[in-house]
């Protein structure tokens, strides 16, 4: 599994396709795809032939933001609705990949770095995670949150760490 912020998938379909095949990935999450619709050709070009794509277009500004999850035919995936449409501070896409008898939740997030981190962001993220943990399975969260976790004294980094720790 891997994550990339591609900042315009249209110009990077070949390197994304190569990243999947070279690294033998079963799942690759792309943030900031800048795609406009689920039918954009860049989504098909980036995914190897035995992969499927689940995507989310930024509702307020199609062509900016956007998330896509490319996944192998070895997995069955369903979209999980968790009230994300009410979230205003980040984009998110949640799916449930299943392989055999195992399934988990995969929450992919993109929070624009052009916006400062606010208490509302943490409230919305906390509410989203609370909805997911009641599913009683492993929850994997990733993406581009634009929070500087490499800077432990940063208040937002500490608050994010505390939130993830509290949610286990």
Structural description of this entry:
By secondary structure, the chain is an alpha+beta fold. The protein has one domain (2-166): Deoxyribonuclease I, Chain A, CATH 3.60.10.10. 26% of the residues lie in helices and 29% in strands. It has helices spanning 13-22, 41-46, 119-133, 155-166; strands spanning 2-5, 27-31, 51-56, 67-72, 76-79, 91-99, 102-103, 105-110, 139-144. The strands form two sheets. Strands 5, 6, 7, 8 and 9 form a five-stranded mixed sheet that branches. Strands 1-2-4-3 form a four-stranded mixed sheet. The radius of gyration is 16 Å and the shape is globular. 32% of the residues are buried.
The counted number of beta strands is: 9
Order of helices and strands: EHEHEEEEEEHEH
CATH second-level architecture: 4-Layer Sandwich
Assembly type: single chain
CATH class type: Alpha Beta
Radius of gyration: 16 Å
Which percent range fits the helix content?
A: 25-40%
SS element count, helices? 4
* CATH fold annotation: Deoxyribonuclease I, Chain A
Whole-number count of domains: 1
N- to C-terminal separation? 20 Å
What does the main sheet amount to?
5 strands, mixed
Report the sheet-strand fraction: 25-35%
The coarse overall form would be globular
- The CATH superfamily turns out to be Endonuclease/exonuclease/phosphatase
Q: What structural class should be given to the helix and strand makeup?
A: alpha+beta
In round numbers, the mean pLDDT is 94
> Runs with pLDDT <50, length 5+?
none
